[in-house]
């Protein structure tokens, strides 16, 4: 039996727009094991990104509990939550979100700038992360000098440079062609299998979901089973 990393107990999430209240989740329960590679699928508006935001503590539930390693992240103060997030969670976005004026090296270093690591240690970690994603030779290039797939691999290096255990990926291959997508998905698999990263990946792409260890389909705020 694998240890749960995340546990959601009876999580409800609503948004209010003017006079309307939209319920995204109503008493949702789930577990994500340490070392899981989970793909989240479902129609637009089914709450996939909301779930990622709840798992990272960027958003809070209206009721219910969200635990990570037994700690109630939904009940943490903003400052404790910021420290918890910096230590535990790396993000990968569809649009890469690299800073265009900075080199790959500097982009990857960003999560380390507010730590008290020495510049030599920061450089060592950045070199290791870039090496892991196969882009050591591109460290001096800016995003415009890299292909889309390479930019996403730099973004993944940035997501792992602080040695966080969880990667939350929101449509990481949504802007990539099939060949670059495969490179990124194989990289995520390697990070999961060889470094034990726990990965939650939102995707609309069946092929991408096929790289995950398990797939959950969200619809109208609940998990539904789908034919394989
Ligand atoms: N901050 C917010 N305020 C109000 N409504 C929101 C907010 N964030 C999300 N929503 C609404 O919650 C619902 C779920 O949004 P979410 O982005 O989680 O869906 P999704 O499954 O990720 O969709 P997509 O596949 O289109 O990205 C949508 O109806 C969205 O409009």
What does this 3D model show about the protein?
This protein has a six-stranded mixed β-sheet with strand order 6-7-8-3-9-10, with helices on both faces. A four-stranded antiparallel β-sheet has the order 2-1-4-5, with helices on one face. Helix 4 packs across helix 5 and helix 5 runs parallel beside helix 6. The mean pLDDT is 94. The protein has one domain: 3-Layer(aba) Sandwich (Rossmann fold), CATH 3.40.50.300. The protein is α/β, with parallel strands linked by helices and 228 residues long. The protein is built from seven helices and ten strands. The site of adenosine-5'-triphosphate has 12 residues, from strand 1, strand 2 and helix 1. It holds the Pfam family ABC_tran. GO terms for molecular function: ATP binding; ATP hydrolysis activity; transmembrane transporter activity.
């Amino acid at each position: 039996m694998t240890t749960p990393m995340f546990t959601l107990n009876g999580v409800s999430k609503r948004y209010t727009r003017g006079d309307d209240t939209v319920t995204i989740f109503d008493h949702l329960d789930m577990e994500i094991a340490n070392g899981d590679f989970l793909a989240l699928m479902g129609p637009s508006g089914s709450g996939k990104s909301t779930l990622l935001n709840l798992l990272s503590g960027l958003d809070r539930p209206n009721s219910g509990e969200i635990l990570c390693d037994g700690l109630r992240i939904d009940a943490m103060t903003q400052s404790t939550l910021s420290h918890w997030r910096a230590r535990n969670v790396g993000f990968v976005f569809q649009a890469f979100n690299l800073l265009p004026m900075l080199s790959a090296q500097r982009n990857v270093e960003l999560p380390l700038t507010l730590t008290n690591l020495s510049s030599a240690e920061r450089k060592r970690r950045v070199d290791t992360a870039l090496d892991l994603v196969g882009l050591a030779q591109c460290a001096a290039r800016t995003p415009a000098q890299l292909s889309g797939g390479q930019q996403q691999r730099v973004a993944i290096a940035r997501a792992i440079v602080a040695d966080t255990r969880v990667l939350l990926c929101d449509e990481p291959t949504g802007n990539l062609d099939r060949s670059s997508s495969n490179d990124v998905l194989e990289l995520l698999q390697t990070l999961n299998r060889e470094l034990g990263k726990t990965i939650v990946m939102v995707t609309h792409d069946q092929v991408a979901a096929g790289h995950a260890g398990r797939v959950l389909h969200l619809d109208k705020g609940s998990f539904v089973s789908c034919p394989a």
